[in-house]
Amino acid sequence: MTDGDVAAFTHLGPTVRGALSERGFSTPTAPQRLAIPPLADGQNTLVIAPTGSGKTETAMLPVFDHLVDEPPEGFGALYVTPLRALNRDMRERLEWWGDYLDLEVDVRHGDTTQYQRGKQAENPPDVLITTPETLQAMLTGEKLRKALADVSHVVIDEVHELAASKRGAQLSVGLERLYDLAGDFQRIGLSATVGDPEEVGQFLTGGRACAIRQIDVGSNIDVRVRKPEVTDEDETLAGKLMTDASVASHVRLIRDLVTAHESTLIFVNTRQTAEALGSRFNELELPIGVHHGSLSKEARIDVEDRFKAGDLDGLLCTSSMELGIDVGRVDHVIQYKSPRQATRLLQRIGRAGHRRDAVSSGTIVTTRPDDTFEALAIARRARAGEVEPAAIHEGSLDVVANQIPAIVQSRGATHVREAYETVSRAYPFRALREETFREVVSELHRNRIVWFDENADRLETTGGTWQYVYANLSMIPDEETYEVHDIASGGQIGTLDERFVVNFARPGEVFVQRGEMWRIAEIDDEESRVKVTPIEDPAGEVPSWIGQEIPVPAAVAGEVGEIRAVAEPQLEAGADATAVGRELAGRYPADDDTLTEACEQLERQLDAESPMPTADRLVLERQGRTVVLNACYGHEANETLGRVLSALLGQRAGSSVGLEVDPYRIELEVPSSIATSDVLDVLETTDPDHVEAIVELGLKNSDALAFRLAQVSAKFGALKRWQGSGRLSNERLLAALEETPMYAEAVREVFHEDLDVERASAVLAEIQSDALELVTTRGRTPVGQGGRSAGKELLAPENADASVIQTVKERIQNDRVILLCTHCKEWKVRTKVKRVPNQPECPDCGSTRIASLNPWADEVADAVRAAEKDDEQETMTERAYRAASLVQSHGKQAVIAMAARGVGPHNAARIINKLREDEAEFYRDILTQEREYARTQSFWD
Question: What sequence ranges are listed for the domain Helicase ATP-binding (predicted)?
Answer without folding.
Answer: 36-212
